Backbone:
């Protein structure tokens, strides 16, 4: 996830509704949150249709934002207010700045730079001196991540018989959050320069060529552009642009949290290692969600040239096993090198096309279910619209879609619909995330209130209450 600077908005018509969309809709790489997540679910024994729903929810975490989905909703005659938002982008047409930790520090930059009791395997705490909120730096395998891993199987099975799509969406949202702890590690969900700012020299070494990121930040999704200093650039990894989100990237940068005696110090980042860990972690999580079995070892098959038939045999054996095996070709796709470019010909679209080709070759689909490329491999500029329509077709706009004040933006939401089920999954996930902030003393320095009582949490309270009452029979 990357913060954008304000820019002019455009709109497009879709049947009865009108969706607001920024000209350059910048999101974390969809090749991982959709395609790789789907393959992780397949590897863990999920059926294809379930894996598609899991991947869809994982990606939609980056699209359920204020401009496109913040309506004052009615459901069967009952006003439930505004929905739970899991994403945000700065937009001059909105009344207030939406770069708020009540979304960022929940769904994208989970705090994890602290210990609780015995060390957790593979959890490393950064030694950060003299920096406020250092505990809120995102780290993989943290106590907070462990807390989520213990929570998600119960939530998944709460709905598996009554509303299976909600169960799959729960799995997808958790997959996004935990994956982001790898890609977004060493950044935080607060607009804080002492953690998220970076020095002037960011070096990316690819094919022996050294390049610096361009911080002019023109309104294009160029792979090597990043946010210039100032405004909300210090929220998340804006100062590093897209670099944390490329599975193949290896680079050096100068994070503010690593300064020594006021001087910038280089920090090495090898995304290939981190993305392999993230993928195998997802496979383990999905198997635990599906079966209830925890700590089942995940191994990467050592044979690089397996046939599709043999790979399918591996996935079939993973349905019930005491050790999970990942086909080597999946890992090769995850960390495959690509040339940098823009959103039409850059690394992400090339990676997505390669994942889609693999899906088709294995016989799971005739076409890429996300549809981000044409059959000839060229970029399909309308894929994001179609993807968002999967959820926006769930409601009919009844008043003032283009005004910025959400109380006037009204819509009627169908209760048996993808967007309602996503909201149901987001509501139960949000409750676990907020409870997690109460669980850990390291996060109780007063600033956690900015997250727990932030605008995004407060404005969705009525919607959250409705979901818990409707699905659990519980009054919050």
Residues:
């Amino acid at each position: 996830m990357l913060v954008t600077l304000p820019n002019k908005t455009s709109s497009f018509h879709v049947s009865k509704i009108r969706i607001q969309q920024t000209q350059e809709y910048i999101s974390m790489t969809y090749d991982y949150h959709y395609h790789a997540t789907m393959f992780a679910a397949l590897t863990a024994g999920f059926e294809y249709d379930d894996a598609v729903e899991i991947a869809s929810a994982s990606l939609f975490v980056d699209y359920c934002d204020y401009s496109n989905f913040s309506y004052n909703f009615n459901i069967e005659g009952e006003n439930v207010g505004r929905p739970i938002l899991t994403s945000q982008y700065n937009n001059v047409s909105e009344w207030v700045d939406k770069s708020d930790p009540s979304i960022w520090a929940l769904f994208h930059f989970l705090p994890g730079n602290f210990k609780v009791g015995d060390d957790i395997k593979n959890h490393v705490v950064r030694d950060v001196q003299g920096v406020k909120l250092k505990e809120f730096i995102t780290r993989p395998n943290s106590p907070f991540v462990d807390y989520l891993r213990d929570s998600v199987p119960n939530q998944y099975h709460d709905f598996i018989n009554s509303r299976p799509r909600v169960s799959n969406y729960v799995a997808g949202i958790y997959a996004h959050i935990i994956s982001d702890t790898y890609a977004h590690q060493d950044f935080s969900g607060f607009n804080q320069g002492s953690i998220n700012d970076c020095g002037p020299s960011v070096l990316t070494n690819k094919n022996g060529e050294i390049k610096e990121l361009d911080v002019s930040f023109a309104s294009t999704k160029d792979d090597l552009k990043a946010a210039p200093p100032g405004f909300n650039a210090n929220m998340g990894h804006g100062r590093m642009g897209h670099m944390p989100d490329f599975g193949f990237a290896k680079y050096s940068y100068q994070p503010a949290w690593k300064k020594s005696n006021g001087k910038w110090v280089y920090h090495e980042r090898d995304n290939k290692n981190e993305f392999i860990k993230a993928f195998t972690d997802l496979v383990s999580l999905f198997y635990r969600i599906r079966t209830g079995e925890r700590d089942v070892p995940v191994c990467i098959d050592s044979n690089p040239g397996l046939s599709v038939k043999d790979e399918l045999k591996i996935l079939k054996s993973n349905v019930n096993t005491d050790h999970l095996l990942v086909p080597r070709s999946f890992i090769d796709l995850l960390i495959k090198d690509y040339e940098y470019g823009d959103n039409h010909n850059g690394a992400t679209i090339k990676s997505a096309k390669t994942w889609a080709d693999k899906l088709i070759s294995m016989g799971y689909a005739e076409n890429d279910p996300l549809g981000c490329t044409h059959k000839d491999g060229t970029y399909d500029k309308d894929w994001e619209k179609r993807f968002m329509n999967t959820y926006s077709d769930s409601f009919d706009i009844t008043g003032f879609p283009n005004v910025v004040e959400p109380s006037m933006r009204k819509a009627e939401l169908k209760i048996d619909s993808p967007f309602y089920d996503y909201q149901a999954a987001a509501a139960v996930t949000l409750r676990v995330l907020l409870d997690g902030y109460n669980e850990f003393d390291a996060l109780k320095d007063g600033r956690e209130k900015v997250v727990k009582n932030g605008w995004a949490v407060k404005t969705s309270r009525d919607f959250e209450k409705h979901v818990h009452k409707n699905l659990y029979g519980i009054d919050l």
DSSP finds 16 helices and twelve strands in the chain. The chain has one domain: 9-472. Residues 1-27 have pLDDT under 50 and may be disordered. Residues 397 and 411 are 4 Å apart (CA to CA).
